[in-house]
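Reposting from the mailing list since nobody answered there.

I have sequence plus structure tokens for a pair of proteins and want to know whether others read the tokens the same way I do. The first protein:
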Amino acid sequence: MSYNPFTSAPNDKENATFRHVAHTLSGHKIVGYSKKVGFNETADKRRLFVTSMARLIPGFFSKRNDVWQVEVFRRLPERTNGMYKEARIALFTSGDFQLLNGFEKDSAISQCMRSLYDGDVKGCNDLLKTFNDFVFDPKRETYEDLYKRCSNLLNFHERGVVERFFWEIKKRYFAEVPVNPVKNEPAPQPTAYQAPARTRETAPLSGLINIALQQ
């Protein structure tokens, strides 16, 4: 077996976005993290999730017959008594999968995971190349579509990138529309963008476009 520096590196528990727990029939738990010490995580969290699952899931269920389920958790930025909070975002068994806490709303991830379970690992990774989140058709899409999409994109992309996309589309096509179509509040002025750290998640799963939308 060839040496793989990534798999051989220690887990970076402090800065990892995802944590997985594989449960064995003997009652043991195999815990792993999406980030290793000395390696950067990609800023695209969808790509990180899909490529990680394409690497892990076939190994757990085809090479280890004692694993009966795998849970995947995403770290949230809030802490309680110094401890990170997590949200369970996926549950895998040998025959099927379940996406949770916002990930089930992402058609790209659903299609990629279905391809993975159909036995096409390469197709699972190749599907990622066909999706482009940052497109908008004002003839077919409404402001509510834009708002919902950007709220969901905070699950996968850096907050600053999503904010720039949101405000650019709003300025061009929906300048007079209140920011929050549910709260019907006046639109706040966009704040200056500051690039977040690449290895830490900067927005909770329930986050909106920016802090101003939560006021």
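The second protein, same order (residues first, tokens after):
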Amino acid sequence: MKNLKLNVLVALFFCLIGFAQNKATETAKIKQIAEQMFQDVATKNYDALIDKMHPKVFTIVPKESLKTVFKSTFEGNGAISIDVPKEIPNFNISDIYNVSDTLDYAFISYDMKMKMTFNDQEFDDESKELMKNMMSAKGMEVNFISNNTINVSANNSMTIALKDEDTNNKWTVLNYDASSPLVYEILPTELLEKAKQYKQNLMLE
């Protein structure tokens, strides 16, 4: 009986070791894709950025349309241009969760900084305050460095890392925006509720 208990304890110990090692490996993979994602944004490598996204995105928005949106956002559309710092921001990775053993996911949180220049518009004091209030409602801090250029800090930004059968069990990413209908069409309710709560906790910290 003693030998049986000892064998069970040894088996349990090695099971826990294996679980911890697997978790560390998966977290390392998420860290790698997060670093690559930030690098893609900084270098404007839209194709690489799109390749990292969950494939369900492309059943709703074609890749070429998405690439056009990225180019317009980060290279300017005539009226606005955006500059993103080259360095990778500090980021945190949550625990890894799952939905019915068919979908694994984790949250990547970070503060995103950028500079926005309005090429055909200048702001007076009143419109600057209006802009600050509008951006604040979206969780962004704004600092005017000229009458047409602002530094923006998108604090507590969040990206979801996820893998399932659709991704061939490889980690992909999806930006979390609670106001975007895209996430509601792609993500299951359980994940959405978890993401909402995790985001709220970030904002309260």
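Reply #1 (J.P.):
I read it the same way you do. The chain has a mean pLDDT of 85.
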